[in-house]
Amino acid sequence: MDLFLQQSANAVALGGIYALLALGLAVVFSIMGLINFAHGELMTISGYVLMYCGIAAVPFPLAVILAIGAAILAAIAMERIAFRPVRGSSGATLLVTSFAIAMILQMLFQNLISARSQPVLLPAILSESVTIFGLIIGVNKIAAIISTIVMLIFLDWFMTKQKTGIAMRAAAEDFSIARLMGIHANTVIAGAFALSGLLAGVAAVLWVSQRASVDPLMGFTPVLKAFIAAILGGLGSLKGAVAGGFLLAFIEVYLSAFLPHGMQEFREPIGLAIVVLVLLFRPNGLLPAKTLAAEKV
Amino acid sequence: MKKILLSTVLAFAMVTTASAETLKIGLATAQSGGLAPYDVPVVTGLKIAVEELNAAGGIMGKINIELIEKDMRSDVAQTIIAVQELVDAEVSVIVLPCDADPSLAVTGIVDEAKIPAISTCASSPTLPLIGGDFVFANFPGDNVQATVSASWAYEQGYKSAFILYSPDTQYTTLPLYFADVIKALGGSVVGTETYSLGQPDFSSIATKIAAISPQPDIVMTSAYEPDFPSFLKALRAAGVTSQVIGSDGIDSPTTFSLGKVGENVVFTTAGHATKGSELEKFNALFKQKTGKDSDTVFNAVGYDLIKVIEAAVISAGGSTDSQAIRDAIAELENVQGATSLITYKGTTGMPVRQVSIIRVKDGERELVGQPAPVADLIPAPRMQ
User: Fold this and answer.
1) How far is A222 from chain B, CA to nearest CA, in Å?
2) Distance from C-alpha of A175 to C-alpha of A116, rounded to nearest angstrom
3) How many beta carbons lie within 10 A of that of residue A281, not counting itself?
């Protein structure tokens, strides 16, 4: 029983990170119909900012703020430079554009920074662990859980109480009508990218605090997981992204924890088979967006 | 008129070949992608050696080295294209990428072209074995490294081991050799887990290890970045205090910057810069040439590779013929490289080189020892 609770705690912490990642993709998708595969590179940028801050002995809390800020700025720049010229193009064009950005950034990191992993100096407290109700939980896991909760509350407040957030929801439902109502397309889209940058930045800090290093290709795995989580939850639905993130994490952790030893090698295919199974019963994901068929720009 | 022109051209051509002999070395290595972290530092070291040699007039004072570089982009298909292009460019020696897996894809080509091919830093003993007569490695084999670390652990009184490996690549199965050796010595393996490369979370595996009673004396893995630091942090956070043993993949600055978590980790690698050693000299040369400190032994491994080729050309009597060079490499004995003495004679292409055991102490590297492995203990290469 203890083992089960312990593994569940592990899953919740991982689920939080997956949820943040999937939300980052979902925010942009809900408005533009674009899966931004360069989302992972926003995380890499945050990671490198953390690395340089560590070298320059910047206090960690300030480094975190700078890292998240860098991801937001990079996301806005990405939209302005790369996605605005192709706005309104077919989904395939947008997708290829996002892959191109990801590759260009990876090559820049490799050639301008280093092809090798760079160590990120982290406060020792992040490697500690505490015992709560008999469960041993790492401080970085607690940080992940708390950040996820804070981000979800913030997102909920932003989407329901803030003008830009409401405009974004309106745009997600029907962009043309929203524009007729006087909503600026540029503001909404730049807002969506800034929000996805914020989510990427927070996720990056949590991700890097686990692995203590940053390399040019770091963004690939998280964006893949986010993509699976977003599909599982229902593409374009924010609540779905959160649900998908947590479900994916629970599937992964429980399989790793409880699958018989001889079958561990097949953990990933089995995990993905479960995802497919869920999609067979709920083709549009767990909590599909009401506006799946809505017109995107 | 035409005749005169032709003969002048011919005469000119003859003069140029006679005055400047060149040895063409083709590099099909990763300048980008997942293998670049290993190939780029090796190639940096390799170029320092080439520059040094050419500045001294070349091999034997007369054979200049010309490098032809192709980026294989960490991709198997691209490796095949790159190697084929190098064969067409009539190089004498080919340098293959660090990992055994893409290198294995081109063994047929180099074998047919009869050009010796040396992997930058692949450590899987299966590579030269499957690759045939023309494929060589340039790193202490996984089975040798595992023998050295397991023997050391057993001597320290660590008898029960938990191993974590990944079936994804040849190198990440190194712990299976470790398990063989520790069992052969009389120790035991109390648990085995697998992981996938780039796995985001290791806490579920760490929780399982923490639940083993009694706790294993050793946790052994050949995971490298980003998996190794991630696993190690999760392991320590779960309360496991066993001795952690790794291998050359974690010979990286990150391992030394993990703070308390990284303390006391022990791993095997290709060399250590003891006072007055060749590696110390190389590190000074590296600093002089690049202005930076060498932060990984892979730089020196690249230097070694050129030293091996140089020694082979010399023992082939200055021949740049690829078959002659291949035969010479296979007979090389005690070539002085930057990391250690290198011997190919009597092997299947996996060189005999010194293995160093390193411990992380106060964030610095500490040499534990450079023991020679007991030959009988070294497991046979694991074909899979």
Assistant:
1) 8
2) 44
3) 7
Nearest to B176 by CA among B230, B209, B222, B243: B222
Structure tokens at B167: 């079936």
Q: Do A268 and B196 make contact, defined as CB atoms within 8 angstroms?
A: yes
Angle at A262 between CA A256 and CA A267, to 5 degrees: 35
CA atoms of B186 and B376, how far apart (whole Å): 14
Facing A213 at nearest CB: one of B200, B229, B238: B229
pLDDT score of A31: 87
User: How far apart, in whole angstroms, are the C-alpha atoms of residue A166 and residue A202?
Assistant: 23
Question: Which among A10, A106, A107 has CB closest to B207?
Answer: A10
Where in chain B are the domains?
2-139+275-342, 142-269+356-377
CA torsion through residues B136, B137, B143, B148, sign: positive
Contacts of B77 (CB under 8 A, 6+ apart): none
Share of chain B above pLDDT 90, in %: 84
Chain A and chain B share a number of CB contacts under 8 A equal to 126
- If phi over 0 gives left and psi between -120 and 50 gives alpha, with beta otherwise, what is residue A195? alpha
Neighbours of B196 (CB within 10 A): 16
- Which residue type occupies A248? L
Q: Which residue among B198, B254, B260 sits closest to A124, beta carbon to beta carbon?
A: B260
* Residue in chain A nearest B40 by alpha carbon: A115
Task: Provide CB contacts within 8 A for B260, sequence distance 6+.
Answer: A124, A127, B236
Domains of chain A: 2-281 (1.10.3470)
CA distances from B176 to B102, B145, B189, B231, B381 (A): 22, 12, 10, 18, 11
Helices (H) and strands (E) in chain B, counts: 14, 14
Region B156-175 average pLDDT = 94
Mark out the alpha helices in chain A (DSSP H runs). Answer: 2-32, 39-55, 60-78, 91-108, 139-161, 163-173, 175-180, 185-211, 220-233, 238-258, 267-281
Residues of B in contact with A252 (CB under 8 A): 201, 204
Angstrom distance (rounded) from CA B234 to CA A117: 19
Q: Which two tokens stand for residue B34?
A: 């997942």
- Do the bridges between strand B356-361 and strand B364-369 make them parallel or antiparallel, or are there none, so unpaired? antiparallel
Q: What angle do the packed helices A238-258 and A139-161 form, to 10 degrees? A: 160
CATH fold label, B142-269+356-377:
Rossmann fold (3.40.50)
What percent of chain B stands above pLDDT 70? 95
Provide CATH code, domain B2-139+275-342: 3.40.50.2300
Which residue in B236, B330, B243 sits closest to A129, CA to CA?
B236
The residue among A168 and A293 whose pLDDT is bigger is A168
**Residues B356-376: tens digit of each pLDDT:** 999 999 999 999 999 999 989
Its sign, for the CA torsion B51, B52, B54, B59, is negative
Predicted ipTM?
Answer: 0.89
pLDDT reported for residue B7:
55
Over residues A231-257, the mean pLDDT reads 93
B290 touches chain A (CB under 8 A): no
Taking the C-alpha atoms of residue A267 and residue A252, their distance in angstroms, rounded to an integer, is 8
